[in-house]
Write a structure and sequence with these properties.
Blueprint (H helix, E strand, L loop, with lengths): L2 E4 L15 H4 L11 H4 L3 H4 L5 E7 L4 H9 L3 E11 L2 E10 L2
Parallel strand pairs: 1-2
Antiparallel strand pairs: 2-4, 3-4
């Protein structure tokens, strides 16, 4: 994969809210808002092509620094390329590439 963009359901909710309704599935992220994301993260290094890029939308409650550290231990370099406040949410866009 050359470019992977993921805007996961990232809102912190009780795990029981995930998959309850189609609408809730769009935003209900479970504990730390990462239940869906944590399934994908271990697969990202294998999915990316040698020059591939992975862009991820997070909020602070998703622990973006922890996500960066997790993928760096798996050979990817991560940076925050954008941050902004959207109401009560502090959004970040993270970019990951292969370490050189």
């Amino acid at each position: 994969v050359d470019v992977l963009v993921f805007n996961p359901p990232y809102v912190v909710t009780p795990n029981e809210e995930i998959d309850v309704t189609e609408e809730a599935s769009a935003w209900a992220g479970g504990a730390c808002g990462r239940q869906v994301l944590d399934v994908l993260l271990p697969q990202v290094p294998e999915l990316l092509s040698p020059n591939g890029r992975f862009y991820l939308i997070t909020i602070e409650e998703n622990k973006p620094n922890e996500i960066i550290e997790f993928l760096e231990l798996r050979g990817l370099r991560g940076t925050r390329v954008m941050e902004r406040q959207a109401g009560r949410e502090h959004l970040s866009v993270l970019r990951f590439t292969r370490s050189e």
